[in-house]
């Protein structure tokens, strides 16, 4: 099996209107590699092409150009989807099914035999906190419960690649924590998790790698810790004379809160120079920290160009 | 083995949806109503095995030759099945394909290791079995009741199970095609109704031979007649089978089957190529 869980090369999807007068490049030459066993977040503003990209991986949408491979297999072949567990964003599960019935159906479609399904269903419903809801029709489930049973459906056949589109959408904080715990345990089992989410803090918390999609193209890609690293140095001091504060503010982002001066320097040299000046002026230094960007800051910087 | 399990899952899902949408129960209730009608309201007295009287709502209608009476009863049911039964089955089933293709549902189905052809054929088969189980229930039920009441066991009536189901399977391909192409159950019902209405008109080829003045128009008429499913001709064939008469030609069967194969083929091609 390939060391890459997902591999795309120049993947492009152009949607054309019926009379071909207008075309939209939803995904534009995306080349991406997602290593086996990693946790990968796909980010992007609305309409960036994230969902189309996911649908290309699942062959629900056919590529105009390029190709996608799942564990080395052509994504267009149904068999390539056997190791995939998928939770769509705006899912519409059949409301005539019960929670157990739904897992039964999708388990069978994933190639599980009846005995295996019968063993797996109670354990999974227990795991997502819906053990008592097994025989209740999905029409009676809340949004958060549907999301949890949807996750159980994606996990039913023990996939080695989990593709989740907004998995915590509509889930309360307790349920969200429960989902995060499940995803962490899957990560430890070596399952590749591909997360498509608007919740940047959640992605930052969970994913090791991210890609930011903008206008169908990969605008930024890399490890979260690399992308957020090296924002600069935060220096906090008190009793800073006005003249010195103005001098430092010219070199750094400066704020004053509760009589504490806070300076954000882009480089280590500037931070050290400021420390020297402050010490020379006899100002007490409260703290000096190397700071990172948040993923949100990286995202906004990238998308705004 | 896996293929069979997947097919079974798709068929079961269609049954569950038909049950939830009350489609199955609607058809089942109608069939039960007809069976009860024959069980309690229709009284047939066979006299010396040769002549019979039929009593309906307490009124003795007239004397029949008993075999003829039973065949007439069967013929009436077969004709009912053919017109209203078939239309109701198409009407009831028309939503089952578009519902499968609803956004949010189809993506999840397509994410499974199941080919699109398999997915659509599974639903098609499930739909046929939903309606088929009702046809078997109705025809076999009436056949048993009339048989027990008259002691005349005419197997010809049972052929109507096969012919009605065959015609439903043919019309269902139109439902599948329009469901896949336009995701509209209403449009599919209308087109199927139109085909059923057109069939007896198009079947008048001999009359049209005389009425149409140009050879071109006559050939066009025949072309349309041969191309479209022959609900009328297969219906007549069913009546012939019920009444133990010889069948004139198998052409209505194979040409309708050919129509179904082409329409289903087009539906599968569209479904395979479509983005969801």
SS elements, strand count of chain A: 14
Helix content of chain A: 25-40%
Overall pLDDT of chain B: 87
Number of strands of chain B: 3
What sequence of helices (H) and strands (E) makes up the elements of chain B?
A: HHEEEHHHHHHHHHH
Descriptive account of the structure:
The complex is a heterodimer of chains A (305) and B (276). Chain A has 305 residues and is of the alpha/beta class. Chain A has 10 helices and 14 strands. Chain A has helices at residues 50-57, 99-109, 114-127, 143-155, 173-188, 200-206, 224-228, 242-249, 268-280, 295-304; strands at 4-16, 23-35, 39-43, 65-70, 73-74, 84-87, 161-165, 192-196, 209-214, 217-223, 232-238, 253-257, 260-265, 285-291. In chain A, strands 6-7-8-3-9-10 form a 6-stranded mixed beta sheet, sandwiched between helices. A 4-stranded antiparallel beta sheet of chain A has the order 2-1-4-5, covered by helices on one side. A 4-stranded antiparallel beta sheet of chain A has the order 12-13-11-14, covered by helices on one side. In chain A, β1 and β2 form a beta hairpin. Chain A is elongated and about 75 Å long. Chain B is built from 12 helices and 3 strands; from the N terminus they run ααβββαααααααααα. Chain B has 276 residues and is mostly helical. In chain B, α3 (66-93) runs parallel beside α7, α7 (159-182) crosses α8 (185-202) and α7 (159-182) packs antiparallel against α11. The model of chain B has no long low-confidence stretch (mean pLDDT 87). The chains are: A alpha/beta (305), B mainly alpha (276). At the A-B interface, α2 of A face α1 and α5 of B.
